[in-house]
Amino acid sequence: MRIGVFICHCGSNIAGTVDCASVAEQAAAFPDVVFSTDTLYACSEPGQDAIIEAIKEHRLTGVVVASCTPRMHEPTFRRAVERAGLNRYLFEMANIREHVSWIGKDMQANTNKSAELVRMAVAKLRLNTELKPKFFPVTKRVLVIGGGVAGIQAALDAADAGLEVVMVEREPSIGGKMAKLDKTFPTVDCSSCILGPRMVDVAQHPNITLHAASEVEAVSGYVGNFEVTIRKKSTCVDWSKCTGCGLCTEKCPAKKSYDRFNEGMGHTSAIVIPFPQAIPKKAGIEKEHCRLFRTGKCGVCAKICPTGAVDYAMRDQIVSVKVGGIVAATGYDLMDWTVYEEYGGGRYPDVITSLQYERLLSASGPTGGHVKRPSDGREPQSVVFIQCVGSRDCSVDRPYCSGFCCMYTAKQAILTKDHLPDSQSYVFYMDIRSPGKGYDEFTRRVQEEYRARYIRGRVSLVYPKGDKLMVRGADTLMGTQVEVEADLVVLAVGGEAARGAPHLAEKLRISYDAYGFFMEGHPKLKPVETNTAGVFLAGSCQGLKDIPSSVAQGSAAAAKVIGLLSRDMLESDPQIAQVNAGRCIGCGKCISVCPFKAIQETEARGLPKVEVIETVCQGCGVCNATCPQGAIQLSHFTDNQILAEVEALCRF
Length: 652
What we know:
- By secondary structure, the chain is of the alpha/beta class.
- The chain folds into five domains: 3-125, Rossmann fold (3-Layer(aba) Sandwich); 143-233 and 316-331 and 500-565, FAD/NAD(P)-binding domain (3-Layer(bba) Sandwich), CATH 3.50.50.60; 247-304, no CATH class; 333-496, FAD/NAD(P)-binding domain, CATH 3.50.50; 577-635, 2-Layer Sandwich (Alpha-Beta Plaits), CATH 3.30.70.
- The chain is built from 19 helices and 34 strands.
- Strand 6, helix 7 and strand 7 (164-168) form a beta-alpha-beta unit.
- The mean pLDDT is 94.
């Protein structure tokens, strides 16, 4: 083998603490190395051209580049060696930036370690073989999980590009949290006016099939060919017959049912259309509130329904669909704020959440847009907003910033003054975080024009005093304790991952963090991709974000899906597990540990064996480490290749 070695300076990132010329000189003496040099920036265009030229001039059959992380630049260098006529897998990288120069300042020690890493890469490369990818057809259909603003944007973009789209939403209507908002920051324009037309577009688009009140039951298959099972939950109303006339909701005698859409700030009937602009605008029965299901006596809605759509015996339906790509846009939920007992813990009716306050402010809300105290219906004159309830608080395991609370509190303070001109708003905050376009100007406006009083400090206690609430806290700028008398207290509750998000992540075979948010493939280079090919992220399921960011990420995820499914055939990665049938004893341990379900049982000459589904395997190597017989080897990372690296390191 004729190997070429290229040591990258990476400016001063590597060369500042590593003698790159010395490493190149040492590498020239390694077995099969016929060319070795150091270069300023190997990943630049001149650097890649130099590698290509060296391959041709020195007739190289393998290349080692010692530079930064393979996670970032390995595809770049593989493409370069391919342009020179080499197989892309006859290339190896040694990470001497993150693994050496960035973690130590000792020049001699760093130089020695870099040389050892290069020696290991050369030893592995000597055992590399040419790997060839395979090609398989794709299904030009995409699944969008979640019908919030991010999912809507992704679905519409993909559908406009000509792809078939299947949207699954667990609630009876799409719209997500945005549908519950009165106005949006920083423009203070109507949320429904922005979202409503997009929701209608979803319903009327010929390329979109909507499954509301549904959940993803199971996902199998691989990129380009996923098999998805969808459970359509029983609403006890046949939506193919329901016209959304609302007659059933008017006549239903169970008028004291919990109103989920209005966050419990009002009551509704047991059979309900979520809100006037709901898509689909269909009725559904809340069984826990329905008199027929609780007592066996009623049936009014079935009697008066003009189309006979009510069906009390309806059961869940299972639908299977084949898709080529999946966009997860499951959104977020508000954390359980009642853990803050010092704020009332749900005991005081006039301590409400920010989303409940949105419903009070909304003209379509339970009070018709009139701000009234839940306890007695009076208009509040003093409103206190408490920031960071469930954000930046390690005591409730929520150390992260939710990102949008500072802004929606400022918006609500403005709306409060618009609704109640004589009112006074107080905002207890830790820090004001307003990094978006026009956001900082917006927060200054609420203080300067609308005279909201911002108090920097934590609130320690909220307690009743007569018909008022006393809010006790600190003013850290003044260095004093303060106590404010309030008619209404609004908690800026932080967000958390949507309920069931980790369970869905396991179905999709993607990673999630300690708080349940889905993990992107790379925080900078792959912000909407995941570790499972063909599965993309959009909106707050990946991390809490505001509406503009969610819409942008929805479009980004759609662009990725469109690019993926624009091809008739996809290329599989050959770095996958391979089974030696002669050594396999069919114990099945590899099947039980495979996180991607890429190994299945088979039979050879009447004996139990296993085989790898090549298009599903992601090359993680868990099966390789588990197999007691050593019957499974990971292509490009075989036991012999890894042992060769170890021997090269331990040769002294």
